[in-house]
Design goal:
Shape: globular
Number of helices: 13
Helix content: 25-40%
Distance between the termini: 60 Å
Largest sheet: 4 strands, antiparallel
Oligomer: single chain
Number of domains: 1
Structural class: alpha+beta
Strand order of the largest sheet: 1-2-6-3
Radius of gyration: 19 Å
Bound molecules: cobalamin, iron/sulfur cluster
């Protein structure tokens, strides 16, 4: 049994931090995590006294650029535009601070600044009852589809666990596997990182088949998410959440910048100044390469 009042207070703070979904689970090892050498495998490798994990979901379904289908426009993803690519820290901070103020320990995940990537967030979210892992490997929530960016806190306090696991609702569907242009989802539920464009568009070497498949993408790919039936309503009519509105207003100022002919003029200093807040971790020379290739692809359309 965990502390019910503390769990309720955390939920209240989460709501005022514009967090959309929250779940509590135990801090035992994730024995099915494939990266056995990673500290994400066991919360106690980060916090030896860990007792609970809090998992948070922030809806980003409404964050898009209307021009994405234009081949002369640089396409990215909702995660990229949200600025949560490496860093979901900000909305989680008041909760960590509250726990620390109460005399507990609290470590945030995912943060490029604080604590780092210390949890396998998808499987932790499944354990906390936020949804199930789809065949594209992402967490699907009945309410939010895959458009929840995830964050977590490892703490040494005993919290009331939400635990009820969602059943897998992919059933016979294999749409994401069929639509991936680079066969990165050959085996259901397992993403082949070596093939996935979201990874390769941030890497030095880009295989020829990816150059054609990337079309106007300059970072990230959402093809498997865009075909998932659990996202259909969010693509057609996204939920009107405060965080989505806040982030969409923030990124609207980039709308002109994302035209390929504008992007290719950005110097390294401009790139850091303009895209620094999006925190994508893509180095300037790779960003430039992606723009050059996207421009070549646009000429062929
Ligand atoms: C590294 C990383 C990447 C890497 C590599 C991913 C990988 N699979 O290795 C790259 C750059 C490719 C990547 C891409 C993307 N990522 Co990413 N990524 C991460 C990160 C930092 C770690 C993920 C990880 O642990 N990978 C290691 C492998 C082993 O884990 P895995 O893919 O979860 O593999 C599991 C399955 O194979 C599963 N499994 C194996 N067999 C079976 C069988 C069954 C039946 C089941 C159910 C499962 C299962 O168990 C494995 C766990 O051991 C997390 C943040 C975090 N701290 O968790 C974000 C995270 C997972 N990414 C996220 C997102 C959104 C993306 C992108 C959609 C971004 C984009 N728009 O381009 C793409 C996703 C493409 C896709 N189809 O998954 C979100 C997911 C949100 C959600 N709703 O699920 C996260 C949680 C970031 C965040 N803060 O929100 N990502
Ligand atoms: S993000 Fe793109 S490349 Fe990666 S698995 Fe999904 S569809 Fe395939
Ligand atoms: S597209 Fe179909 S198989 Fe893939 S995750 Fe969504 S529901 Fe599951």
């Amino acid at each position: 049994m965990g502390d019910k009042m503390l769990s309720e207070e955390i939920k209240n703070i989460a709501e005022s931090s514009l967090i959309d979904a929250i779940g509590f689970t135990d801090a035992s090892e994730f024995s099915n995590y494939m990266l056995k050498q990673s500290k994400r495998r066991d919360p106690k490798l980060t916090l030896p006294q860990a007792k609970s994990i809090i998992i948070f979901g922030i809806y980003i379904g409404g964050i898009t650029m209307p021009e994405w289908d234009d081949p002369w426009y640089g396409r990215t993803s909702r995660l990229y535009l949200s600025g949560f690519f490496l860093d979901v820290v900000k909305p989680l901070k008041p909760i960590a601070e509250y726990l620390i103020g109460m005399g507990y320990k609290a470590q945030i995940c995912d943060g490029s600044i604080d604590g780092g990537s210390i949890l396998p967030l998808k499987i932790a979210a499944v354990r906390a009852g936020l949804g199930w892992q789809g065949k594209h490997s992402l967490l699907i929530s009945k309410k939010y589809g895959t458009f929840l960016t995830l964050g977590g806190i490892i703490t040494d306090t005993e919290l009331e666990h939400t635990g009820e696991r969602e059943p897998n609702r992919c059933h016979k569907c294999t749409e994401c596997q069929k639509v991936c242009p680079v066969d990165a989802l050959h085996d259901p539920y397992i993403l082949n990182r070596e093939k996935c464009m979201s990874n390769l568009l941030a890497e030095e070497s880009l295989p020829q088949e990816v150059v054609a498949a990337m079309e106007n993408r300059i970072g990230d790919c959402e093809i498997c998410q865009n075909t998932c039936p659990w996202n259909r309503r969010h693509l057609e009519n996204p939920l009107n959440t405060k965080m989505t509105n806040f982030l969409q207003n923030k990124i609207n100022k980039f709308r002109e910048t994302f035209y390929l002919q504008n992007l290719c003029k950005l110097s390294e200093i401009d790139y850091k100044a303009v895209f620094g807040s999006l925190n994508t971790g893509i180095p300037y020379h790779i960003f430039k390469r992606n723009i050059d290739l996207a421009l070549e692809n646009a000429k062929r359309v």
